[in-house]
Amino acid sequence: MSKIQDAVVELHGLPGVKGAAVITHDGLMVAASLDEEFTPDVIGGLTSYLLMTTQRSLREGGLGRASQYLLTATHGKTIIVDIEESSLVVLLDQFAELAATRREVQDAAQRIRRASRIA
To answer: Which segments of the chain does DSSP mark as H helices, in order?
Structure first.
């Protein structure tokens, strides 16, 4: 396994994490470890669309670029971290402790950044 794949598998093993993936800005899946309920193409497409429209809205509003997103919904949470040419997406259940998970996500994002520069 690659270092990028290792990082998403480690994240997926954390309590409350239902999946993790690295997705290019145009929606292509680079690496993933997802629960069976998730379809990689759907996760990639939705992430790409969400990032594209949010970045455009921020740019038009003169607010600059976002480096991390936290989405909270009725049945889960999502953390998206910008990693230069791609994004780290972590899907959590609604009961997951964000404080405990955020540090692990940031550490994984750093490892993925380093691995993607080397590759």
So the answer is: 3-12, 40-60, 98-118
Phi/psi at 50 (5° precision): -60, -45
**Position 59, amino acid:** R
> Residue 113 in contact with residue 23, Cβ under 8 Å?
no
Q: What is the pLDDT of residues 30-87, one digit of tens each?
A: 999 999 999 999 999 999 999 999 989 999 999 988 889 999 999 999 999 999 889 9
Dist CA 102 CA 99 (whole Å): 6
Q: Are 31 and 109 in contact (CB under 8 A)?
A: no
Q: What is the model's pTM? A: 0.91
Taking the CA atoms of the chain, what radius of gyration do you get in angstroms? 14
CA angle 22, 26, 27 (to 5 degrees): 50
Q: Where are the alpha helices (DSSP H) in 14-97?
A: 40-60
Angstrom distances, CA of residue 51 to CA of 9, 14, 36, 58, 89: 23, 25, 24, 10, 11
Q: Which residue has the tokens 């049945």?
A: 75
